[in-house]
Structure formats: C-alpha cells, structure tokens
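Thread: quick sanity check before group meeting

JM: Hey all, I'm pulling together slides for Thursday and realized we never actually wrote out the predicted structure for the chain we discussed last week. Dropping the sequence here so it's in one place. If anyone has concerns about the input, flag it before I start.
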Amino acid sequence: MENNNVRRMPLLGDDAPAFTAVTTQGTINFPADYKGKWVILFSHPADFTPVCTTEFMTFGSMIDEFKALNTELIGLSVDSLYAHIAWLRKIQELEWNGKKNIEIKFPLIEDIRMEVSNLYGMVQPGQSNTQAVRAVFIIDPKGKIRTILYYPISTGRNFDELKRIIQALQTADAESCATPADWRPGDDVIVPTAGSCGVAKERMESKSKDMYCLDWFLCFRKLKK
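JM (edit): ok, ran it. Output follows.
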C-alpha cells in the first residue's frame, strides 16, 4: 500500500524545499530570503563534537571567499538555539590548524523537531535516528538544487572541493560548457558534445583558436581571462 505521508528526498534539478526556521542570526525564510544568491545548505551531526568543530572553524575562516563567489552559508543540526550559541562562543576560544578567533557569522538553524532535516533527507537511519548526517546542498540563485553530497558522520568535508564545485557550476552556467576532472579556475573547459546545448554547429565548424579536439567527442576550449 502506498504511503502518502512519505516525502521524496529532493533531487538534483528540484526546487529547493521551502521552510522558515529560527537560526543564530534570526529567522530565515528559505529560499525566498536568498534569491539571487548561491547557497551552501549543510548539516552536521551535533554541536560540541570534534569533527563538526573543525568543519565550522574552516567554514568560518572561508566565509569571505564564499561571499566573493556570491555564495551564502547556512548550517543546521538538531540541537537547540542555546546549544548553538554556546558552541559557537567556544569555537572562538579555540585554535586549530592555523585558525583562531573564528567568529561564525552565518546562520545555524535550530532543528530540534527535525523538520528541515527530514525535508532534505538529512536524517538517515543507517547512520543515526537522532542526528543529521553531513549533508551538503548547493542551491543556485534561482532556488534549484545543483549539487548534493553526503558524508558519513566520521568523515569531515573537503572545503576546497565545496568551493571548487561552486566555481565549476558558475563557470558552466556562464560559458555554456562542462568542466573536466580535477578542473580548477583558469583551466580549459569542455565543449558539450554535438547536438547538446545548441553548440553542434560551433563544435563542427568552429575555427576558433581557443578550441581544440582530442577526438570528435572530446573537445576543449580556453576561457578568456
């Protein structure tokens, strides 16, 4: 029998599920409050835990780098607002890996009832029924989900990769291209295969010095600086 109360987990290309939540920076209405911005919405298992602490120190130290990419950060766990505030104050007292006096200026959602966590599939019984996994949702300025990452509770995230994904998505959108393995800003990009993205004619007839092919299905283009 079909259970109509079961909510499908959001997928790539879906509209980001909307919610209103209390955070350490006040109440937010998502994604309405973030229209025109890229957003990294992420969850962590619990406050006052070691892996999560290193992640928040890293996110806090990189906030200006993300803002330069028109990207806002929103954190979440099933802890209370009071626990969040106490933990973030403690983080400011710590020093790790060259990071110290880290003030967390982005909102951290209070999700005691797991309403947002369940909305985004952040609570996964195979890991825990009482904690969110390390989920990451990258959402574009139109409110579409563009990337979903899940990490086990024991594994801290790679923040250089999160930044690289934002850069790759923004480049792909702006240049109507794709990015190859290990792509970094400034590297050549991939011209989509003939018949996709309206570039078949460009691909087959282009004499541009910026474009070169290794074979008919693998063509690259240099980006203008």
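AS: nice. Residues 176-221 form a domain with the Antioxidant, Horf6; Chain A, domain 2 fold (CATH 3.30.1020.10). Residues 1-6, 196-201 have pLDDT under 50 and may be disordered.
JM: adding both to the slides.
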